Amino acid sequence: MQFSTTLAALFAVVSATLSAATPAVEARQQIYMCGKQPYKKTDYTCYPNNGNVLCPIIGGVAYLPCGYGSNVACYDPGNYSCSNSKLYLLKVCGGIPFDTNSYVCVQGHLCPKTHPLRCGEACYNISQYWCDKGILKQQGQK
Ligand SMILES: *[C@@H]1O[C@H](CO)[C@@H](O)[C@H](O)[C@H]1NC(C)=O
Ligand SMILES: *[C@@H]1O[C@H](CO)[C@@H](O)[C@H](O)[C@H]1NC(C)=O
Fold first, then answer.
1. How far is the CA of 37 from the centre of ligand 2 (A)?
2. 97 lines ligand 2 (CB under 6 A)
């Protein structure tokens, strides 16, 4: 009698623990809808503004959509940027990711593509300036 009471009490504790844990498990495995596609929020993000596109979550990184509907590419925002539905590879320059569409990396420093040369700390364009021992001079200037 005493033994079965202990067992019943033990069972009560176990089932209380189980039922407390159950909602968390259900929330993690719950299926959501992205348009007509089922998905889990732990594995994908739904982007209704891109035509109900699902992008994966990989290694803790939520990939972002670029484009719309069937023309969507999902990208890692650490490697790419998206502009007008086009992807641009981000390269790293001196530890800073940058958009290769707009910048170039010169000796570990970023310069705008229109001013792709470096003189001392400045970026310049050869059509306007020249570099005299680290000092910018205007073209035509000696
Ligand atoms: C993005 O960059 C990380 C590390 O910088 C790399 O491991 C990963 O393969 C890259 N992803 C793509 C799609 O290039
Ligand atoms: C330098 O500037 C000129 C005039 O602004 C421009 O036409 C040219 O494309 C620039 N050079 C580079 C490499 O962008």
1. 49
2. no
Predicted model pTM: 0.54
CB distance 129 to 137 below 8 Å: yes
Q: Please write the tens of the pLDDT for every residue from 26-73.
A: 555 799 999 999 999 999 999 999 999 999 999 999 999 999 988 999
User: How many angstroms separate the Cα of 50 from the Cα of each of 6, 70, 79?
Assistant: 58, 9, 20
**What is the best residue among 61, 63, 66, 79 to mutate for testing ligand 1's pocket, by most ligand atoms within 8 Å of CB?**
79
The secondary structure of residue 115, as a DSSP letter, is S
How confident is the model at residue 25, as a pLDDT? Answer: 52
Residue with the larger pLDDT of the pair 73 and 2: 73
Smallest-distance ligand from the CA of 79: 1
Q: How far, in Å, from the CA of 115 to the mean position of ligand 2?
A: 7
> Distance (Å, rounded) from C-alpha 30 to C-alpha 40?
6
Is 116 exposed, middle or buried, given 0-12, 13-18 or 19+ CB atoms closer than 10 A? Answer: middle
